[in-house]
Proteasome-type protease
Amino acid sequence: MTYCVGMCVDDGLVFLSDTRTNAGVDHVSAARKMAVYEQPGERVIVLLSAGNLALTQAVTQLLAEPTDPDAPTLYSCATMAEAARIVGEAVREVHRRDALSLAEFSVDFNCSFILGGQIHGQPPRLFMVYAAGNFIESTRVSPYFQIGESKYGKPIIDRVITPSSPLDEVAKCALISMDSTLRANLSVGLPLDLLVYEKDALRVTRFATLDNDSTYYQMIHRTWGERLRQIFGEIPNPSWTDLANVPLRPRESRAAVPRLVIGDLPPGADAPAQTRPRRRSPRT
């Protein structure tokens, strides 16, 4: 499992991914989930992946080495929407090739992608591509996407991020979101890849790999936990004053039912000739 998040705001884009791969408790490893396609001055496109590692790597390999040399690529597509269609078609191609074989081994075709970036003369855009190859685009109402273990890191993003949020605040929020996920789920792990893209830069200007030795990430991890406990302690405990609206249900009246107590005999039954159980000799 993994956790990746991409955010699109007025000032640019933020991408964050972990590197944990897990095929069971004895097969925990690391692999990058972020791929960057850059032509300085012309385009920057970032692809995040989650799901079955063999499938996501097959898709990224197909994007790097397309079967049709004349087909458009992420380096030649005219728009970001076309880039999303190229990724979706690569997903479908891998599905056509591998899905039946995987089904024979009861393995689901499980992969998803976040694609974002900017092409010269166009605004930054962000998409999520599903396992069926279809995709959706972020909006100002919902300016981010998550893939993988998304539930633990979602609340902080929903409460903090808006389209007008500065890039540094968005990056900080992404790291807090990741820290909450790392805290709750062992299938997500360090190191992390963080890329912050400034609108109209058309080249990568901010990138970092964060691990246990990263001073800033350790500060995030420590401070966020301390402040959560502090704020939790400052919130007043509930006051129990109103008991008028307790949804009590009246007890049903039932006729008395005779109960058989262990040791009693049912009416009309004869007492056994021997009340004590006979001791049996052990079998040989």
